[in-house]
């Protein structure tokens, strides 16, 4: 199976991403823009959710109307930067449950180190939207998917802002069954595992740390 890559090229997404990339973009604007893009990505990643017809009554007459059916959603931000995508998604799917995945990249090895994981007890029956703005080496994304698969999840979708070609290749080498959505596919990784041209360290830019 080859992995599915969905490149979201909508002009609103691309415009807001350009504003975020600018090194002069303040943390407050960076957070707001990421939240807005997350909402737009949510629209795309949920595009194929099944619907069922249910009877309702408008003030004027009864009718059959569509309602989302099937698996319920879990939104799973990868800490810290994935948190910036959570509220934008929750604004559109307020009934979704939230799982938290605490991972950081060891700066020397670039391997993912887990420090926290908490998911709803019925996560295996749900569709998991894994949220992290950056797919660089993909070690973090692979580790996060490993975690959900170990809990029995079979419908996992990865949503990011920027992806490196090397990261996409590694991610789909390890998890070819997990489709991904990204707003941009950048040129390459540099020697420190940063996406180029990229936007720098997403967590630091979002929360004003260095
Ligand atoms: C960043 C980012 C991803 C990871 C991507 O997190 O949010 O989780 O790096 O890199 P990878 O694809 O090479 O694994 P970071 O480790 O900087 O943690 P932070 O969000 O807490 O700053
Ligand atoms: N994590 C980031 O925040 N930025 C990168 O370019 C790579 C990993």
Automatic annotation (TrEMBL):
Enzyme class: transferase
Sections of the chain in a coiled coil: none
One Pfam family cited in the UniProt record for this chain: UPRTase
Co-factor note (free text): Binds 1 Mg(2+) ion per subunit. The magnesium is bound as Mg-PRPP.
CDD domains: PRTases_typeI
Pathway in which the depicted protein is active: Pyrimidine metabolism; UMP biosynthesis via salvage pathway; UMP from uracil: step 1/1
Regulation of this protein's activity per its record: Allosterically activated by GTP.
EC number(s) reported in the record: 2.4.2.9
Binding residue positions for 5-phospho-alpha-D-ribose 1-diphosphate: 80, 105, 132-140, 201
Residues the entry annotates as binding uracil: 195, 200-202
Reactions listed under catalytic activity: UMP + diphosphate = 5-phospho-alpha-D-ribose 1-diphosphate + uracil
Segments passing through the bilayer: none
Functional description taken from the UniProt entry: Catalyzes the conversion of uracil and 5-phospho-alpha-D-ribose 1-diphosphate (PRPP) to UMP and diphosphate.
HAMAP family: Upp_B
Protein family: Belongs to the UPRTase family.
Protein name: Uracil phosphoribosyltransferase
Organism: Roseomonas fluvialis
Taxon lineage: Bacteria, Pseudomonadati, Pseudomonadota, Alphaproteobacteria, Acetobacterales
